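From: lab user (bench 3)
To: helpdesk
Subject: output format question, protein + (2S)-2-hydroxybutanedioic acid

Hello, I'm new to running complex predictions and I'm not sure whether the block I got back is the full result or only part of it. Here's what I submitted:
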Amino acid sequence: MFETMKPAPADKILALMAQFREDSRTDKVDLGVGVYKDENGDTTVMRAIRAAEARLHDKQTTKTYVGPQGDKEFCAAMGDLVFGNTVPKDRLRVCQAPGGSGALSILGMLINRARPGATVWLSDPTWPNHTPLLTGAGLKTKSHPYYDAATGEVLFDEMIEALGAAEKGDVVLLHGCCHNPTGADLTIDQWKAVAELCVEKGLLPFIDFAYLGFGDGLDKDAEGLRLLAKIAPEFVVAASCSKNFAVYRERVGAAMIIGATAAEADTAFSQLLSVARSVYSMPPDHGAAIVKMVMQDPELIDDWKNELEEMRRRMMQLRQDFADALRKASNSDRFDFIARQKGMFSRLGLSPEQIETLRAEHGIYIIGDSRINIAGLPGDGLDDLARKIVAVAS
Ligand code: LMR
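Helpdesk reply: Thanks, we reran it on our side. This is the complete output you should expect:
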């Protein structure tokens, strides 16, 4: 069976994560995989999650099957978190999914059922797992310009021009906020222009929403998506709880459909549940049950919002401090864009060789496209880190 197979190419993010774990240097710095870290470099369980988990442990009386949609109350709470009251509930359908990746995957398969082999437009660059996830679902991908490495800004005119070549029925994948890997987000006016283009050309917006709360705050981060809901008659959203609830390994996410009509939403949703049933039958319950408990309890949700805000502010401060340290070390404004960008990631603009030198000589781990995880920056070692980076970059 497998004798003619070739080994699969390694996923760069996961490979770097494994390499970092095996490195025995005690002063190593992990700027690789996108997980939040506190000032001690730890990815801890959030307070509200820990409290809810203890309650669940005491309260849960059965582990029997839930169903392909997962927990309906979790789904309703996710719909509220993402949309507030901005979308008519009769056109919104939500299905729990195994993480944001699971949501991307089942939505990709749903689109493939509706329009086999449809083309999805991805930003250049995008999260490296988008392509395998979507092509694995049967879809094709094309890319549009997105990021200007020289300025750290979005190449918006070029993006719109490229999307001008998209055909009716194509899909446009947009990062809801905190673009991965660049940290460069669309402005609200740009969201409006993309939404109008999608309507005019008959394109389906597909939003990957993995960093809600990490950019400008919960409501502000959802502004683009909520505006889209006012303009586009139909679109889909893959939401993740991995980062903002810090439940990474529990695999908690949600796939959402906004249908043009309630009847279309029902039909598409029945197909989505059938996709889920055919792939994994039902999503894992544990993490979603905890997240639901947090979202339904006034005290826990307040505490979660406070801690999320602490995390967001810490990343913003690290951005500013690191940009300052790089300015000092390089005596230039070359890296100032880091302070302007949003969320967990920015790209330093280093070559793969320079990145390898940082890893080999200093134990500094950066993804090969020069993406750094802002939360992994050592708050008390920024000057030293900046000097090492500037030394290899010049
Ligand atoms: C990342 O981009 O580092 C995270 O989303 C983790 C992953 O699965 O790649």
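A quick orientation on your result: The chain has a mean pLDDT of 97. Let us know if anything else is unclear.
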